[in-house]
Specification:
Largest sheet: 8 strands, antiparallel, barrel
Structural class: alpha/beta
Distance between the termini: 27 Å
CATH class of the largest domain: Alpha Beta
Low-confidence stretches: none
Shape: globular
CATH architecture of the largest domain: 3-Layer(aba) Sandwich
Order of helices and strands: EHEHHEHEHHEHEEEEEEEE
CATH superfamily of the largest domain: Flavodoxin domain
Number of strands: 13
Strand content: 25-35%
Number of helices: 7
Radius of gyration: 21 Å
């Protein structure tokens, strides 16, 4: 199996470079192979030209002529999975990596009549100066994951994993204290990259929409749910159709059933609340939840949501 690694850091004197090397060693020790694009070393051109912009803006399915883009497309389609290794700059990837997406994730390849293969797995390995608690507390981690998985990898990978090596600012004691354990973690992520592919059941960063609902229900095919998970705790935001804004929170049990309470405001300005129990099912390769819900006022119903 082969992993395509996209690495982006302006300095070889960095913790991120050590993460890259440990991850690569894990990949090879696990009996797999890799191909890598080191964006700074190869001086990848991040700026989109006007011609490239017009090609995508007007959805022109003309052949690609840029040799650097064609090379990246070939690396993607020659691999089984993809991994991105980079430092967090202001809650985002470095500008050169953002530019890589701007140019490589082009019309006719990553969307439209796309020629990009479905990746078995996409993994983000990013280094951050802030501790993970701060990234979570202020919603910064959720923002990073939403951009990478809710947009850039939406329907482009079967499985996705976001790994943060946090608290690695040069001014903190945690950098030295966590150095070895973080490198070991990166090594294990590489070594077990494909072994872990089918082991984890999670709803984290998955999007769903309703495909069935009782008449008294208010969500519909226009309603989109964005789920999150940490351990056995699950929560989601949802909106669309007759739902202005909604939230739910609950737990996942050992059989992957969901149990939660929900609350939303509908387009009539009413706040509705209730509880729900959901049972998972795989239908045509997609994750579904068969739901039994009950309004706080007592009326009951059933619905089915399906992964987008």
């Amino acid at each position: 199996m082969k992993v395509f690694i996209v690495y982006c850091h302006p300095s070889e004197d960095s913790f991120t470079r050590n993460i890259r090397d440990s991850f690569i060693k894990g990949i090879t020790d696990g009996g797999n192979e890799y191909v890598m694009s080191d964006l700074y070393a190869m001086d990848f051109k991040a700026d989109m030209t006007e011609d490239q912009y017009l090609r995508d803006a007007f959805y022109r399915n003309t052949p690609f002529t840029e040799e650097d883009i064609l090379a990246e497309h070939e690396k993607i389609n020659s691999a089984d999975a993809i991994a991105f290794i980079y430092p967090v700059f202001w809650t985002e990837a470095p500008a050169k990596l953002v530019g890589w997406f701007d140019r490589v994730w082009s019309y006719g390849f990553a969307y439209g009549d796309k020629k990009m293969k479905m990746m078995d797995k996409a993994m983000i390995l990013c280094t951050a100066g802030n501790p993970i608690e701060k990234l979570e507390k202020f919603g910064l981690l959720a923002s990073m994951k939403k951009v990478m998985f809710g947009d850039r990898f939406f329907n482009r990978a079967k499985q996705m994993e976001f790994v943060v090596f946090d608290g690695m600012s040069r001014k903190t004691e945690s950098r030295e204290n966590n150095w070895d354990s973080n490198l070991q973690k990166a090594y294990e992520k590489g070594r077990d990259f494909f072994a872990d592919a089918e082991e984890v059941f999670t709803v984290d960063d998955k999007f769903f929409t309703a495909v069935e609902n009782s008449e008294s229900g208010e969500v519909s095919e226009k309603t989109v749910f964005c789920y999150h998970q940490k351990g056995n705790v699950i929560w989601a935001e949802y909106s669309g159709g007759s739902i202005v804004k909604g939230f739910l929170i609950g737990t996942m049990d050992e059989k992957h059933n969901l149990h939660f309470n929900y609350q939303h405001m509908n387009s009539s300005g009413e706040i509705r609340t209730g509880s729900c129990d959901s049972e998972p099912q795989i239908e045509n390769g997609k994750l579904r939840f068969n739901e039994k819900w009950k309004w706080t006022m007592g009326e009951e119903g059933t619905s089915v949501i399906e992964e987008i």
